[in-house]
Design a protein that fits this description.
The complex is a heterodimer of chains A (284) and B (169). Chain A is an alpha+beta fold and 284 residues long. Helices cover 31% and strands 24% of the residues of chain A. The longest helix of chain A is centred in the N-terminal third of the chain and has 61 residues. Classes of the chains: A alpha+beta (284), B alpha+beta (169).
């Protein structure tokens, strides 16, 4: 102990007693235990809050996918066929919607949202042109595309059922300040549609080689549309000491095929079929 | 009672209080953690169900379109009169959670397409009927690769869908 005493005296702490040395040692241990507990508590809190956010967002993503897939099935089953206008990472499709088939008693006047059950405005293509062979038909095309931070777009706009302004789905949260400070989603959370694609799976079918004429091949090949929706949820939290690391990514792929009930000769005088599959003359 | 004993008793009560408090906090923390994890596992199973359901109904529509729009399949009773299936279909995305998943595969198949003919209607056939199934086994600990092999024996799941259709003229 005389060594400690001499050291204390040399650094100018000669008045300290042995008890003071013990107190310093004890204090160090207490601080270590305390900081470990605080750090652990903080990490646990961050983990809990992150798990909470991730599970909330995953559920939201699941709900969006369910709503989007159901809506796509409805729209494509209603249609008479579809065409790709642009390919690549951001494909654009147009879907032919006809009212010739008199669903809902012919009240599907698609130009007016209020009067029909089909909730999207079409371009009136079939209404404004007439066939030389057949009685006129009403209807037109709607377009289908997607944007990663807005989801599926119909006619270039977010449909009502997926509108983030109504608070239904949050693609990206706000800053963590102001009234939204305690919101479940903030700027670290991001939900996106990574890709949305449509193709004609029956063109890969061996039966397509059997057809000798192009019209029959197209009629068979384009009778089914396969849609694939890739959803992603990403949580960027660079300041986390926790289970998930700093960049947590969750992805889901949903895929289904839809055979248009109004395709081909399923309905009488199908204008889409006549003009775009059979290539018959249409007067504009 | 001496002062010394009273002092010891007070210390013991403090220790007991701390122990009980820590136990309550631990149980709450463990409970919260497990309920969050359980909720996420339940969601994974729900997502599997939806993925399988969408794929199954798509498979049925493709089979229906084969019958409706091609003489090749319609005239081939050895095709529609026999079961047909898809290749095993993964219900998970392999890039999900940095690939830290054990993929769950579903078997999707249909029974022979039934030719339903009612003699009274004078139509032949009246309609066709497709019955299709999706089957898969949920891992006991879904989505976790590190589980022991014995833990993998989870629940068997099955979806059966049935639909009917006419041939276009």
């Amino acid at each position: 102990m005389s060594f400690i005493k001499s050291v204390l005296r040399k650094v100018g702490l000669g008045t300290l007693t042995r008890a003071a040395g013990f107190t310093l040692f004890e204090q160090t241990i207490v601080i270590m235990i305390g900081s470990t507990a605080l750090l652990g508590g903080w990490a646990a809190y961050r983990d809990f809050s992150m798990q909470w956010r991730v599970s909330m967002a995953e559920r939201q993503m699941d709900q969006y996918a369910q709503a989007a897939m159901s809506e796509m099935i409805n729209v494509l089953q209603w249609s008479m066929g579809s065409q790709q206008l642009a390919g690549g990472r951001n494909p654009l499709w147009r879907i032919a919607i006809g009212e010739y088939v008199n669903e809902n008693g012919g009240f599907n006047a698609g130009q007016d949202l209020g009067s029909g059950h089909f909730p999207y405005i079409h371009d009136g293509y079939f209404s404004s042109t007439t066939s030389l062979y057949d009685p006129p038909m009403t209807g037109g095309f709607i377009t289908l595309s997607h944007r990663s931070n807005q989801g599926i777009l119909l006619n270039g706009r977010q449909p009502e059922w997926a509108n983030s302004r109504s608070g239904m789905y949050v693609w990206r949260g706000d800053n963590r300040s102001g009234p939204n400070e305690l919101a479940a989603m903030d700027r670290r959370d991001e939900m996106s549609v990574k890709s949305f694609s449509i193709d004609f799976p029956l063109y890969q079918d061996p039966a397509t080689n059997v057809f000798t004429d192009e019209i029959s091949r197209k009629k068979f090949g384009e009778s089914v549309m396969k849609i694939t929706l890739v959803m992603q949820y990403r949580y960027r939290a660079e300041d986390v000491i926790g289970l998930y690391g700093d960049d947590y990514i969750r992805e889901r792929v949903y895929e289904t095929s839809v055979a248009s009930l109004n395709f081909g000769e399923s309905i009488v005088n199908n204008r889409y079929f006549q003009e775009f599959i059979q290539g018959r003359l249409i007067a504009h | 009672m001496s002062k010394r004993i009273r002092k010891l008793q007070r210390g013991a009560i403090d220790l007991m209080g701390i122990a009980v408090g820590l136990t309550i906090i631990s149980i709450t923390a463990i409970g919260t953690s497990y309920s969050l994890l359980y909720g996420r596992q339940a969601l994974i199973q729900q997502e599997h169900y939806r993925t399988a359901l969408f794929k199954l109904r798509g498979f049925m529509e493709e089979e229906m379109a084969r019958m409706r729009f091609s003489d090749y399949y319609r005239g081939n009773q050895s095709w529609w009169g026999a079961p047909n299936d898809l290749a095993p279909y993964s219900l998970d995305v392999l890039t999900d959670r940095d690939g830290d998943i054990r993929p769950t595969y579903a078997t999707i198949y249909r029974d022979p397409i039934e030719y339903v003919d009612d003699a009274i209607t004078r139509m032949a056939p009246d309609y066709f009927r497709i019955t299709a199934h999706a089957e898969w086994t949920e891992a006991a600990i879904p989505g976790i690769t590190t589980a022991d092999k014995g833990d993998d024996a989870g629940r068997d799941q099955q979806i059966t869908l049935r639909t009917t259709f006419h041939l276009p003229r």
